[in-house]
Specification:
2 domains, about 65% helix, NikA-like, about 110 residues, mainly alpha, single chain
Length: about 110
């Protein structure tokens, strides 16, 4: 057994194929492995699956990075004393508003 592990004990139990498939399905909803999910539940954790799936979270993060890059470019220009066109600021505001609306719709599901 690895010496770097915090936990020194291992618990093993058997489940049927159907039980394992169900555990696997539930664990996937929580974006966890089956052993991690079982451990948390056995310890009495009250868990709710995330309201945004993994792909949705990655898409929102991607969009936020793009908006952040735009803001950084505008900040650099402003720090150089260059004018920032109102339309560019308005465009970023619209992107953020649309992303916020998308996020709120996702968590309402």
């Amino acid at each position: 057994m690895g010496e770097n592990r915090k936990e020194s004990r291992q618990v093993k139990f058997r489940v049927s194929d159907d039980e394992f498939e169900r555990l696997e399905q539930i664990a996937k909803e929580f974006q966890m492995s089956v052993p991690s999910f079982c451990k948390r539940k056995a310890q009495g954790a009250r868990m709710r699956p995330p309201k945004i799936d993994r792909e949705g979270a990655f898409e929102i993060a991607h969009q936020l990075r793009a908006i952040g890059n735009n803001v950084n470019q505008l900040s650099k220009r402003a720090n150089e004393g260059k004018a920032i066109p109102h339309l560019e600021l308005h465009g970023i505001q619209k992107e953020l508003h649309a992303l916020w609306r998308q996020f709120n719709e996702a968590i309402q599901k």
